[in-house]
Plasmid mobilization relaxosome protein MobC (Bacteroides acidifaciens), 133 residues
Amino acid sequence: MTYYNKPSNMSNKDKIKPRGRPKASGFRKLSKSVTVKFSKPDYDRLCLRSRQANRTLAEYIRDSTFNAQIVAKHSPEEASTMRNLVGMANNLNQLTKLSHQAGINRTKNILMELLEKLKAIMNEYKSSERRLL
């Protein structure tokens, strides 16, 4: 322990204790920073939320970062399945329009094939969802 302002004629009992706050341990010391940009409306919302939580902006961001639940983005397989579903939905709309123009009998077989594909994709999605849980 280092002592300050100790005259040479003072005994060990009369030692002056250091002033100020003790240094933080290396574990708790905040030494790294991260830059994040926000739009003006998002920044205002963030400031409002931090005030409502009665925390400084830095404390609020730190707390919300470590207490947040992260939802992963879709995997490439899921994105491909969604694109297929969107394409099939487009085909279904076109077939509906054709059915109104030409009659349901002309588009019945195509509609049944499309419905079977949709059922297969939905069953595949449900089974992969169960494996994740």
Summary: The helical segments are 40-52, 57-67, 76-102, 104-132. Residues 104-132 form the longest helix (29 residues). Residues 76-132 form one domain.
